[in-house]
Amino acid sequence: MDEDRELYRNNVQSAWRRPQLREPTFADRLSSALTLDFRPMAGRPLPAEVQPRTFSVEPAAVPETYSLKEAIRLLGLPSIVGAKTPLDDLKGLVKFAVTVEHGLMVQYLYASYEAKKSRDELSSIAIEEMGHLLTVLNLLTALDAPIHLGRYDANLDRLFDPFPFKLEKVTAEVIAKFTACERPDDEHVDPEERPLLPEILDAARKSAGVTPARVGLLYTKIYWLLRPTDEPLPNEPWRDFPFEDVIKECPKDWHVRPFPVTNPADREGGEPWKNQLSDVLVGSVTTREEALKGIADLTSQGEGFGAGNDAHFDRFVTLYSAFKQNPDPTREVPKDPWYQGAPACKQFDTGPCTLC
Questions:
Q1: Angle, CA 79 vertex, CA 77 and CA 84 arms, to 5°
Q2: Does the pTM exceed 0.85?
């Protein structure tokens, strides 16, 4: 098992490669820094070349096979460096989940604004991403943690970036990277879609060098921390959850208890955000059962390894095929726009800022 991991890390462009250090940007300095640790096995120290630190990584190749068990075997599960309790671990990982959902939502919204014929479908997916964002924010509140609304392009640690954050012209290649990010476990891919998958993954690599497995592993660990014990539940919300593989990666009985840590209704703002639209999933997470179901539903709709009805992956595959056959005429919009009207930041003396 360890030999397989070393082979994967050394011979494939992966998140395990030696980190490329960089200077923090203006956005970095405004964001709260978290440091992640991928542990090959629970309790074992990381090799010197992959000791956790603040870094960005080279884009990783998308594995030809996409299996939750295989991803766990090759990459392990994430942990927050310095976390002394399961609660510390969960709070940090949920903050990363917030940044991922917020970042995807913004990019999907920008794509929907730019597109014409496919605007309604892209807008619908973006709205559902808002539901994902509200779910993880509700979870953060239930953990008695401060509200965090960072975006992953401002994270110092880039291990969970689904792909580099860009606001850009919508093309088939851009749709491909969206598709790869939302890719479920191979066993859940529709047989009719499988022949197109290598082409989509190749287009995604050319567009962004994405590694969609990272986001799924993040939610796998969050789900594990939310469970009450190491034993399977009678009615497990996450279908086919790989207990045997996950339990090897986590310390014994590494779960948050009690849950919720605080009654969300007692926090500022009152009751958790709730779903107002039938197709938008918003987990209220006021109980452990609701929290587990909320994460399972979220990963089933997108960014995880499950696959539910009307999943984002299937809809992006359809959009990819449509863009290939007849590219959608788009609005003339800028690439990666930045508001230049605000005065320069007094604190850091660089870039526009509305905080000072």
A1: 140
A2: no
